[in-house]
Design a protein that fits this description.
binds fe (ii) ion, globular, 371 residues, single chain, Rieske Iron-sulfur Protein, alpha+beta, Naphthalene 1,2-dioxygenase Alpha Subunit, Chain A, domain 1, binds FE2/S2 (inorganic) cluster, 7-stranded antiparallel β-sheet, 4-stranded antiparallel β-sheet, 2 domains
Length: 371
């Protein structure tokens, strides 16, 4: 798991006027709306004596700790320490990590890391929601007890469809089946190539034989593309023809190393009737479960420490490129040392460093160990 990326926190519609505790990267956070309705994300541990802020109350623009009532605003600054008396000066060190938070595409995202704004990777854009007409979204969130890197690799894997997804009409019995040559692109959406890549390939699809929404205009030859932006954001385009296309945007949040929460925005260019939302959502979940059923049993549950510990073939090239990017981010010192964190569990509390740590000293809670 890596610091310095944007992670999906909660659906905007699920964040109302109560604070919510959200677990990400193996840590707890409190997310709440201030009086203007803006979402804020803070580390959940109160620096006074360790209470969970998400159990507290929202008081105007602050979250009030449930234990002794200290109040922290959306920037993590302590605004009130009741035990000191009404007009007491608040010590400078009384602050909590606060993370840049944005609400976009119906999802609240938090930047969990310390990079200044100019150096941050982007939130993966959903251009069809930004300005293109003629598209309709489905929002799905679901969780699985799998490692999110294995999940992303599965999404970048053109070779598994034939065997994992009978819903798409694949039966694993086509003798002529093969993965066509993958055509790579450096990036998509104008995202710098240090943050990701994409690839395209033509594929043959027999069309669905199972129940569910059918793509009537489908032709035999189709194009699919996939790619990533950062370690946890992935896009997949499935182009049936000019009129029929799915574009899926997955924002994955590692809850723990082996537990992921996935926010899937499924855009479609056909079947725009709102009555189709439910059957399409159901179908997406059936497909997601087919992947989960395989991924839950993969060993090791993490991506292996070396590619030589698996027998990779040309269709695994996207995995290889993904792993290369991950190891680059690890070399930058962004990888959380989860072993050290679990060893200290119950004894030492840690925080994901926020951007303010680059500018100010004097933090009460230790920065999470990084490898
Ligand atoms: S623990 Fe939060 S105010 Fe005391
Ligand atoms: Fe799949």
């Amino acid at each position: 798991m890596y610091i310095n990326f944007w992670y999906p926190v909660i659906l905007g519609e699920e964040l109302k006027d109560e604070p919510v505790k959200v677990r990400m990267l193996g840590q707890n956070f409190v997310v709440f709306r201030d009086s203007e309705g803006n979402p804020n994300t803070l580390h959940d541990i109160c620096i006074h004596r360790g209470a969970s802020l998400s159990e507290g109350l929202i008081k105007k623009d602050c979250i009030q700790c449930p234990y002794h009532g200290w109040q922290f605003d959306g920037k993590g600054e302590c605004k009130k320490i009741p035990s000191l008396g009404k007009d007491a000066e608040i010590p400078k060190r009384a602050k909590i990590d606060a993370y840049p938070t944005e609400e976009k595409y119906g999802i609240v995202f938090a930047f969990l890391g310390e990079l200044p704004k100019s150096q941050r990777p982007p939130i993966m854009p959903i251009e069809e929601l930004d300005d293109e007409e003629g598209w309709r979204p489905n929002y799905l969130t679901y969780e699985a007890k799998i490692n999110y890197e294995r999940s992303i690799e599965n999404g970048l894997d053109a070779a598994h469809n034939e065997f994992v997804h009978p819903t798409h009409g694949h039966e694993g019995e086509d003798d002529d089946y093969k993965v066509n040559e993958l055509k790579f692109e450096d990036s998509r959406f104008g995202v710098a190539k240090k943050w990701g890549f994409g690839f395209w390939h033509p594929f043959k699809s027999p069309g669905s034989k199972k129940e569910g929404p059918q793509i009537k205009e489908a032709s035999e030859e189709r194009w699919a593309g996939s790619g990533i932006v950062g370690p946890n954001q992935m896009w997949t385009y499935i182009v049936f023809n000019e009129k029929s296309e799915f574009r899926q945007y997955m924002f994955e949040c590692p809850v723990e190393e082996n537990h992921v929460r996935i926010f899937l925005v499924n855009m479609r260019k056909m079947m725009l009737d709102p009555a189709m939302d439910k059957p399409i959502a159901d179908r997406c979940m059936v497909v997601a479960q087919q992947d989960i059923d395989v991924l839950e049993k993969v060993e090791p549950s993490f991506t292996p420490v070396s590619n030589t510990k698996e027998f990779l073939v040309p269709a695994d090239e996207p995995c290889i490129r993904y792993r290369k990017l991950l190891s680059g981010w690890e070399k930058k010192g962004w990888k959380i040392d989860s072993d050290a964190v679990s060893e200290a569990s119950g004894k030492i509390a840690y925080a994901i460093p926020s951007p303010l740590r680059k500018k100010q000293k004097g933090w009460v809670i230790d920065k999470i160990p990084l490898s």
